[in-house]
Every structure is written in structure tokens, then in C-alpha cells.
Design a protein that fits this description.
- The chain has 1 helix and 3 strands; from the N terminus they run αβββ.
- It is α+β, with helices and mostly antiparallel strands.
Length: 68
């Protein structure tokens, strides 16, 4: 009986601690902005591009710009 009671309390505190320390999921706005992307391993050279992500009409859109 003591073992079942102990296990039930342990499970209760485990569930409680998981809910207390859970991090909110980041939305798509986390990735919004300008990033530099380097694609390595091509035969002639490495390719560097700039990726611009932004919200347009409540949807995430992306533009790849040349780095020149």
C-alpha cells in the first residue's frame, strides 16, 4: 500500500512539475527577420545568400536575395 501511495504521489508531482516548467512554443514570428545562409560544398565555390522572412497578410513569406 505504501508503495502504491508513493508511486501515485511521485506521478502527481512529475505531472505538476512538467506543467510548471513547460516553455511556450515559439510562433513563426521567432524566425522573422534577415538571415545569412551559406551553402558549402559546391564544385566552384561556396554560395552565400540572404534570406528575408516577413509577415504579409497574416502569412509568413520569404525572399532569397543574392549577396552581391
Amino acid at each position: 500500500m505504501k508503495k502504491a501511495s508513493f508511486l501515485s504521489w511521485l506521478l502527481f508531482f512529475l505531472i505538476l512539475s512538467t506543467n510548471m516548467f513547460a516553455q511556450p512554443k515559439p510562433g513563426a514570428d521567432y524566425f522573422k527577420g534577415k538571415m545569412e545562409y551559406t551553402d558549402k560544398g559546391h564544385t566552384k565555390c561556396d554560395t552565400r545568400m540572404i534570406v528575408l522572412l516577413e509577415n504579409v497578410n497574416d502569412s509568413m513569406t520569404g525572399v532569397v536575395q543574392d549577396n552581391h
